[in-house]
What does this fold into?
Amino acid sequence: TLDAVRLPIGTWESVPLDRTVALPSLPGELEVLAFTATTSGPIALLRDGNGLKGGVGDLGWRLLTLYNGQWRELQLPPESRLSRNGSPAARLLIKPAVGAEGSDVLELWLNWPGEPAVAWRVPLGVSWQAALAKAHASELAGRNAEDADKSKSSPVTVAGASQPPQPIALDWQTPDATKPSGSLPAGLTLADAGLAWIDGRLVAWTVKPASSAKTKSGADQGVVELYAQLPSGSDWVRLATLDVGSQEVAVVPNPG
It folds into this structure.
């Protein structure tokens, strides 16, 4: 594990003190929309900042994961790439495994303006690891074939050599329109709410200004509303309403 401690002089010190290993940078021309961590490596949802790539109505999004020291593109659900009513707010979540036989689940949450939030899901189990390993092996085979071809005097090139790798196919579970499992608490959207899986429960929170309340310093008093989804997956319950002033708010799991 890695921790960071702020020193009295205002600088930060990492624990342990050894410098952490630097990971390869994400493509610089892309805008990061969402980011999450898995046991296999980080996953990032990005948008092409230089214009849309897929044609009319395409959001120009890319989903990348870090595997064997390289960022590799993952296949997005086809329906998630389309701009139906403006650009949706996006979140990447990891639903932790339940029990020894289960696997973590990657969730792609999207919320188009004026529509309920929806979530696509893909298990990060054996099939996930196999897909990454297969893509890596295919890429290595292509490189080896290309290197062998370059060493020959013949101008014949290997089919598929130098071609950009195709996105790794994932078995996304399409949201079921008959089930409200992707809904958020009434009045909340992904654009103004946080979302996380904590201790097996989906938790949402939002910070709202309370103009009628003032702190001792005269600043507006902020109010955090914290919700948890019921086991049925169709309803939410409000856990707490907290006055926080102008402080920044984060909700994290309790390691205990």
Observations:
- The longest strand covers residues 201-214.
- The chain has one helix and 13 strands.
- Residues 154-161, 212-218 have pLDDT under 50 and may be disordered.
